[in-house]
Amino acid sequence: MREKTSCHCAVFTLDSVDVRREAPHRGVQDCAASGLDEIDRGVVHALQIHPRAPWRLVGEVLGVNPVTAARRWQRLEEAGLAWVTAYPRLSNSRLVVSAVVEVDTEPGVAEDVARALAADPSVANIKLTAGGRDLVAAVQARSLDELGRLTTLLFQRTPGVRATRTHVSTGIPAEGSRWRLRSLDAAQVARVEQAVAAPALLSDAEARWDDLDAQLLALLSVDGRMSLRDLSAATGASLTTVRRRLQSLLASRLSLRCDLARPLSGWPLSAVYFASVPGQFVEETSRVLASVREVRSCAITAGPHNLVVDVWLRDLHDVHAFEAHLSRRLPRLTVEDRSVVLRTVKHMGRLLDRDGHSVGIVPLRLPQDTPRVPSGAA
């Protein structure tokens, strides 16, 4: 059963373990207004559960011809409305060290700085924000040492950057790949989930990536549904080798996600909260946050704040209404600062326009070399 708490005109919900960060169901009229119909939304929901689901399975679940399902996805993808991408599993620090970086810029150049940083593959996300910082970026590295080099070479040498504050993530209890549309019913969801392979435990040896792994990551970060045949042609590896390697990567090291342009999700506003809770309650608090529908992602961080929370909201009023809800639900939690996202410039490697549509890709790479300095940097 879900607990619902009213905050003025807004209602925020605590989801069950099985239904997390889902947009509320929208009728046919709302879907038409957003440019997506029920079949489109069903395709996206199915791929959110199983990003590489065969079109035969998607068609069976939706009760449509597999060719129809594939064509619907192609239309959404070509319009930049939805896409599938791959990235190293963020929950395992042996694979990737993540950090949230606050960036202060010189007056009037925040958007130029955001574009320069977005060109680097190590910067997975970057947002223009209002409040106590001009930009919030998510950076991925292979180690703390490399993260230090990134903050030095990338941020400090980018023209227009005045100061940075780096929050190293020590845990990521919630991330955007868990977000769902509520378009499929319980039986349809169960049917798709049955086809998803269970994750595997990762050994120290498996934490090391070779050249083929790196090539597959780069290719799948561009198109997470790229066929085995195309992956084989692009890497020069045999079809059998690619099939086995991809199965291994998806089971233990690589995450896939299907993203939808935020304005089409029903949650057009985004905000970032910087919060703290006494150390002994961090894990418990983060688990509760991970079950709140509006919470898109939550990072446990080392720094002046030990929680950085990204949320999707309905309108500006909800920025404070949601904070009030968290204070009642989690009295030990103190929200110390918050920023409204003015625009998301880059989202898990995807370059976004002002409408949140994908208009370009900076392929993610294994962050193992000294980062390049953006053009124009000192």
In short:
This protein has helices spanning 28-34, 38-49, 55-62, 66-78, 110-118, 144-155, 186-193, 211-222, 228-235, 239-252, 282-290, 317-329, and strands at 3-7, 10-14, 82-88, 97-105, 123-130, 135-141, 161-174, 254-260, 269-276, 295-302, 307-313, 334-347, 350-352, 358-361. By secondary structure, it is an alpha+beta fold. The strands form three sheets. The protein has an eight-stranded antiparallel beta barrel with strand order 4-6-5-12-9-11-10-7, surrounded by four helices.
Note the main attributes of this structure:
single chain, 378 residues, alpha+beta, eight-stranded antiparallel beta barrel
Give a description of the structure:
This protein is α+β, with helices and mostly antiparallel strands and 378 residues long. Helix content is 33%, strand content 28%. It contains 12 helices and 14 strands. Helix 3 (55-62) crosses helix 4 and helix 3 (55-62) packs antiparallel against helix 7. The longest helix is centred in the middle third of the chain and has 14 residues, at 239-252. The chain is globular and about 50 Å long.
**Rg, Cα atoms, Å:** 20 Å
Strand line-up of the largest beta sheet? 4-6-5-12-9-11-10-7
Q: Averaging pLDDT over every residue, what do you get?
A: 85
Number of helices: 12
Measured distance between first and last alpha carbons: 56 Å
The portion of residues assigned to helices is: 25-40%
**In sequence order, what are the helices and strands, one letter per element?**
EEHHHHEEHEEHEHHHHEEHEEHEEE
Largest sheet: 8 strands, antiparallel, barrel
Number of strands: 14
Measured by DSSP, the beta-strand proportion falls in: 25-35%
Q: What does the overall shape look like? A: globular
